[in-house]
Amino acid sequence: MTALAPTLSVRFFPRTANWLRDLALILAGSWLVALLAQIEIPLQPVPITGQTFAVLLVGALLGSKRGAAAMVAYIAQGAMGLPFFAGGASGFGILTGATAGYLVGFIGAAYAVGWLAERGLERSVRTSIIPFLAGTLVIYICGVAWLSFVLGSFGQAVQYGLLPFLPGDGIKLVAAALALPAAWKLVK
Length: 188
Prior knowledge:
Elements (H helix, E strand, L loop, with lengths): L3 H9 L5 H20 L2 E2 L6 E2 L1 H12 L1 H16 L20 H19 L10 H23 L2 H8 L4 H22 L1
Antiparallel strand pairs: 1-2
Helix pairs in contact: 1-2, 2-3, 2-4, 3-4, 3-5, 3-6, 3-8, 4-5, 5-6, 6-7, 6-8
């Protein structure tokens, strides 16, 4: 099995070289995350953004390798100065700040969601929550671990870097779990 975006790219652009289709998908995925990162509810030290929703979708849409590559491209573009991070932030300093663990988690989350999507778990409403839950857990583990290092307290990291996000991420999980099976039905 394959993910949705590569399936569609082959269908609509059959004569395009594979590397060019992959590059276009990877860049489009990174730009989707950058776009949704601008949807922000400011909190300290970690804001609530649309990034995590985009990461889950990109992983499911692109698959494991392309999804992870899109996250690496997203982080690289933001580190190089493009206003891609939450609230239009950019620069290498973000990669050492409070949100760095979440950014690293995006790579693993996109890979995990993509890997599960390549096995068809995002195609059914019954199973589609599994990839998105797995990706969210990867983001939380990496983000809270790094934040506990930055804050010097695991308890504070959970208080500021996990608990405020649970309700919104629950909504994002459900939205993604409903959107992907619906998209596959439209494609077929």
